[in-house]
Specification:
GO molecular function, one term: endopeptidase activity
Helix content: over 70%
Number of domains: 1
Number of helices: 13
Pfam families: Rce1-like
Shape: globular
Keywords: Hydrolase, Membrane, Protease, Transmembrane, Transmembrane helix
Protein name: Membrane protease YdiL (CAAX protease family)
Oligomer: single chain
Largest sheet: none
Strand content: under 5%
Distance between the termini: 47 Å
């Protein structure tokens, strides 16, 4: 446990130190570029990362986690990782292409309607419906191999796999402490934002990136290789969306800078991936992703 705790803390600190170094070297005029609009980036995004990873490493039962890792690997026995990952990457490319198409043609096809309204169905289609149909059809792939991975991820009956609520709660509390108090927002707007974020962002993205992509990349690259590779994919696509002004991204509420977006999503992707690798609990991952995004969006809702 001490070894795992130290590794998690080192990775978390490495994220913060690397991000800080990039900022100092590449953006010497930081305050003038608007980094401190609202809450400071380091307080609301980067500081919680090493804390969350260290807490997760501390409270996780690592002997049981290793047994869970073996269950997850066994769930994919007989599957072609390269075949399935090729399909998943094709769908991810389709998602980005659809984003571009929607952003360019929505205004012409739907007069006066913001293109972002069309993003939830695009995200759900390419990151949820099609991946499950093509790669993991209710537990059976197109090659005919069965899998118990949906049961591993969704039927979380082991109590220890819910101890992840503690590091997730710590992370959300640190984000809230950095972002609030903020001007009051009508409860109806908060509820509506929560429903949209969880249904159209957290559920499809966590199932796609964590349950489908990361689990398979971990089989090919090892635990940390899978976490880092998935985080890189998550970061690249999220920065792309932020550049198109997708308001369902954390970076859109922090800043429009590309480097800032890379820092935000790179750090977030690593901690999301680490928590998933500890507990393989998709409900926990959805709560983590949706809760952190909702907290960053709430202060902006007052503009509506």
């Amino acid at each position: 446990m001490a070894k795992e705790y130290g590794r998690a803390l080192r990775w978390g600190l490495a994220v913060v130190v690397t991000a800080a170094a990039l900022v100092v070297v590449l953006l010497p005029g930081l305050p003038a570029l608007g980094w401190w609009r609202g809450a400071p980036l380091f307080a609301s995004v980067l500081v919680p990362i090493p804390v969350t990873m260290a807490v997760a490493a501390l409270v996780t039962d690592h002997r049981r986690r290793e047994a869970l890792d073996r269950r997850a690997r066994a769930a994919l026995d007989g599957h072609s990782m390269r075949y399935e990952l090729s399909w998943l990457m094709a769908l991810l490319a389709g998602f980005t292409a659809a984003t571009v198409a929607v952003s360019h043609f929505a205004a012409a096809l739907f007069h006066g309607v913001s293109w972002e309204i069309l993003m939830p169905p695009v995200r759900i289609l390419f990151l949820f419906v099609l991946p499950l149909l093509v790669v993991d059809r209710g537990g059976f792939t197109t090659l005919g191999h069965g899998t118990v991975m949906p049961r591993v991820a969704m039927r979380v009956t082991d109590r220890w796999r819910w101890t992840g609520l503690f590091p997730v709660g710590v992370n959300l509390a640190l984000i809230a402490a950095a972002l609030f108090p903020a001007p009051p927002v009508p409860a109806g707007l908060v509820v509506g934002a929560a429903l949209a974020i969880f249904a159209a962002v957290a559920v499809p993205e966590e199932i796609f990136y964590r349950a489908l992509v990361q689990t398979r990349l971990e089989r090919l690259l090892g635990r940390w290789g899978g976490i880092l590779a998935t985080s890189a994919l998550f970061t690249a696509v999220s920065v792309f969306l932020a550049a198109y002004g997708d308001s369902t991204t954390e970076a859109a509420t922090v800043s429009a800078g590309v480097l800032e977006s890379v820092v935000v999503y790179g750090a977030a992707g690593i901690v999301y991936g680490y928590v998933w690798s500890c507990y393989r609990n998709i409900w926990l991952s959805i709560l983590f992703r949706g809760g952190s995004l909702l907290l960053t969006v709430i202060p902006e809702l007052r503009l509506l």
